[in-house]
Input
Amino acid sequence: MFLHHAWYWLLGIALLLVASAAPLVAQGPDLTPDDRAHVAAAQRLIVDFGETAWPGFSSPPPVLLRAESGEFLIGHASPPAGFAPVPGLEIAGAPVYYTDEPLTPAPIASSWPVEDLWSAALPVRDDFQAILDEMLGEDTVTLDATNHVRVLVHEMFHAYQLNRLGGPQNLPADLSGPAGMDWLAEIPEAEMVALDAAHAGEGSALRAALEADMDEEARTLAAEFLRLRRERYAASTADYAPDLIGYERSVEWIEGPARFVELTLIQRAPEVDQPAALAFEDPDALWAEFLDQLADPGAIPGGIRERYSAMGAGQAFVLDRLLPGWQARVLDDGLAFEDVLAEATAPSR
Output
């Protein structure tokens, strides 16, 4: 699943070569009402509120939806050869293009280059749900309107990241992560239990910082998070430790911003005039769920990668409170979250 360190970004959440839903019998290329409505909702959130979450993120990148029969391209101004407009199929007034020779090698949830633009690549919703059920178990993750729009925004932000960077080859060298995942199997069960407990302590400090009434209290609690993390790093002497630490910092840098943006924007979804059929979850409930995940990152479904996505987002929300303009320090300057957080918690502040 993980290839050269930069390319694991492209593989997203490991959907490559996983069996999708049973073949569908279709009269012609088409998207379900849910796919159409959810893509339009994600685009609308980015246009209306993207700039408030991440300066510069105000224009939705293209979306590439992989179906059993082919691939749909949405929001691309210059579709490549082989893509033709689908008669009568539009999203937000723009034509949808289709090819029966997909660009992606298999269903993925990630980013993919389409001509000169990195685009969000996902399976169509029904196939995506079937893949998640097979990977994680039925009812573990349900792609209702809230979660499907979140995933779309998440992957569209990844496409924005890559377009801003100029491709995965331009990831900061010290944040590209280990070349493989063999080290994960080397962690004994007892040490994984200890790691879960350490992450719970660190995540709880982030949660407390986000719930603090005063900024100075939040700053103190964020500094406590950094202290706990540095102590863990200093005590990490196992052979796998450098790979674990590199992976942790890399996933937080790559996935943390996308998780921060998707949660920030989906909290605004109820404010947008959407079709009545789109029932979004209450923003307070979404925020409470995220805070609970921070307090126990090891319990998040989906494996070790997902805990770092949440902890990266937790640091992002703390920075959003303590250090305006932090986004440029992370993406443009290529600094790890904990390094920018150290700036925000420095005694001089």
